[in-house]
Amino acid sequence: MAWPALPTRVLDVGFDAESQVVRLYESNNRPGRYITLSYCWGTSMAMTTEWRTLQQRKTAIQLSSLPKTLREAVIVTRRLRVQYLWIDALCIIQDSVEDWQIESSRMGEIYRDALFTISADGARDSSEGCFLPRTRQPFDSARLNLQLKDGNPCTISFGPMLSRYNGAIRGGIDGVPLNDRGWTLQERLLSRRVLHYGKHEMFWECQESSVFEYGESIEITAHWTKKDFVCNIEKNWEIYNAELFKEIHRSWRDTVWAYTARKLTRDTDKLPALSGLAKTIHANTGDRYLTGIWAADLLDGLSWEAVPGDVEPITRPTEYRAPSWSWASVNGPVWYPDSVQGESCGGIHLIDAEIDMLGHDDHGQVTGGWIKITGLFYSAFSSVEKGAGGDYTQVVNETENVIGRFSFDVEGRVPGPVTCFLLRAQESKGRNRTLRTNVIVLEPTGIELDQFRRLGFGLLRGTLAPVVRKTIVIV
């Protein structure tokens, strides 16, 4: 079997289980087997590679100097007779912007090409380790030691069907510290195989199934699993059809919803931490990536809505990160509401687009961008009203009738005239049928004619008139 090229740098852990030394190895694209680690750094990392320590790391790293999670990942790698281990803190030069940009742009292929990924699910930081104490078992089990006819020993484990314990099991999978971190979502999705070290037990996840220690296979989450997403991209594309294309876009939007609820240490990682997944979709579909949305999914891709938290309001980053039409332009979770599933309003067309990239990753950080689109527009006014659940924004037409509501991307928006870009329209069901239209809310930038920025997302009711078809640029 031909193994893929090793990453630029890997840890050479050797095969001696008693050795107390590992070293950083520069591969020069030599092929080989390696394992990756997915884990939480925590507030700080006690052991990293920097320019001043690079030669020292290549000579020797004492096992005792590694944080517990990294040390135990070395133990797992050795026990499985694999020589190389990739850990971001040690294999990327952390004080080199250029090296970080190059290596982070390869993150997707690093996890994809690994033999498997060790996932330290239950550790809140690198000091807690993979081998967590099992303080509570969600079920009882027993083991029976047998001898096979050929003389080899065999152990059989007995336990109740885990489906009876779905609540406890799911809490040990989805409700873990690792799933709060932004980078780890694509690490899990792009890894062909994952060995999870959970709170109560280990489990194995691959593109075919997920199996727990005691042998039962179980479906562990929704639309952003390997089976539902990555397999659609990589395994089924030879039977491409329009429905599969829609399914991939829908799964991407579900992934964005899950991803934006996670935390990032650095605001600038918002796009890079999902770029490996974006590259995989682009490589297999040829669709154009527009800073978080897809050209072939423009209509629904623009229909995101910011979800304010109970404690922290939605904000924009202090430094430019993405065009206003992208969900990456705000800090905090976003979702794609399914309030209107109707037809396109008059046909929306992407005329042109330009994205200014930063660094080596053509799906990563950007310094600017715009899209030029043609569609239907409606002029309205916004007004802030007091409600039991807090302030909300009403939409008022020219005759001062309330025709809907807006959800602005960030708080503190001053009421006034707005431009609505019409997306989808659908007639509501029931006795009093009303036309409902999804819109994104825009305002002129004041810099160039027909240049706008996004303000939010809204739902309007009733027949909208007058509407105007025109071509605009959104930045």
Provide tags for this entry:
single chain, 475 residues, alpha+beta, nine-stranded mixed beta sheet, 11 helices, 24 strands, 20% helix, 30% strand
Helix fraction bin:
10-25%
Largest sheet: 9 strands, mixed
Task: Kindly name the structural category.
Answer: alpha+beta
Radius of gyration: 25 Å
Biggest sheet: strand arrangement: 4-2-1-5-3-6-9-10-11
Report the portion of residues in β strands. Answer: 25-35%
Total number of β-strand segments?
A: 24
Query: Number of helix segments?
Result: 11
The mean pLDDT is 85
Globally, the shape reads elongated
Low-confidence stretches are 162-171
Distance N to C terminus: 49 Å
Structural write-up:
The protein is an alpha+beta fold and 475 residues long. It is built from eleven helices and 24 strands. The chain has a nine-stranded mixed beta sheet with strand order 4-2-1-5-3-6-9-10-11, with helices on both faces. Strands 16, 17, 18, 19, 20, 21, 22, 23 and 24 form a nine-stranded mixed beta sheet that branches. Strands 7-8 form a two-stranded antiparallel sheet. A hairpin with an 8-residue loop joins strand 1 and strand 2. Helix 5 runs parallel beside helix 7 (183-190) and helix 8 (226-234) crosses helix 9. The longest helix has 19 residues, at 242-260. The radius of gyration is 25 Å and the shape is elongated. The two termini are 49 Å apart. Residues 162-171 have low confidence and may be disordered.
Please sum up the structure shown.
By secondary structure, this protein is α+β, with helices and mostly antiparallel strands. Helices cover 20% and strands 30% of the residues.
